[in-house]
Amino acid sequence: MPSSPHSVTRQGVGIFVEWFGANWFNLLQTVAIVAGLFFTGRSFLVDTRIRRISNLLNITEHHRSIWQQVIDKPNLLRVLNAEAKLDIKPITLEERIFVNLIILHLTAVMAAIRGRVHEQPAGQDEDLREFFSLPIPNKVWKDSKRFREPDVIAYIESLLKPKPKKRRRKLRWWFR
């Protein structure tokens, strides 16, 4: 048994100094590797954020350029008309191309969301439900969906299904 508590401390320090003298290079190497991994991980997270923002800007730019066509070509406004009579005036080629561009854009956005490089925008489902419920987009969708990817078909079809109405529970028995 050691004679005093200080001698135990001196022995421990001596053992550490001896170990450190023999292993300082290994310790330094390990610390450098761990620090390198930490900074690589941090850099990866920053790069991921930058890529997501870049993707968002790119998607927004394409979205804007598609919808710019409606401003530049007012005859495309009929695509957004809920009272468009297709039996009186059939869909024009220009309208069909415009709706197909939107479908292609949606397909690309869905791929970005699936790949986790883009987040689904708030309100996307309701916006698309409203758009594909309009006469022209609905007709173009029905005519062209056989050319689309199965997950895009499933997604748009799920939006077009009528929502089941929530059944209200009758609480009369509670108040009797």
Instruction: Report the principal-axis shape.
Output: elongated
Would you tell me the overall average pLDDT? 86
Count of distinct strands: 0
Residue share in helices? 55-70%
Structural features, described:
This protein is mainly alpha-helical and 176 residues long. It contains 5 helices and no strands. The chain has helices at 5-72, 93-114, 124-133, 135-144, 150-160. Helix 1 (5-72) runs antiparallel to helix 2 and helix 2 crosses helix 4. The model has no long low-confidence stretch (mean pLDDT 86).
Topology:
Layout: H1 5-72, H2 93-114, H3 124-133, H4 135-144, H5 150-160
Helix pairs in contact: 1-2, 2-4
TL;DR of this structure?
This protein is mainly alpha-helical and 176 residues long. Helix content is 69%, strand content 0%. It starts with a helix and ends in a 16-residue tail after the last helix.
List the defining traits of the structure above.
176 residues; mainly alpha; 5 helices
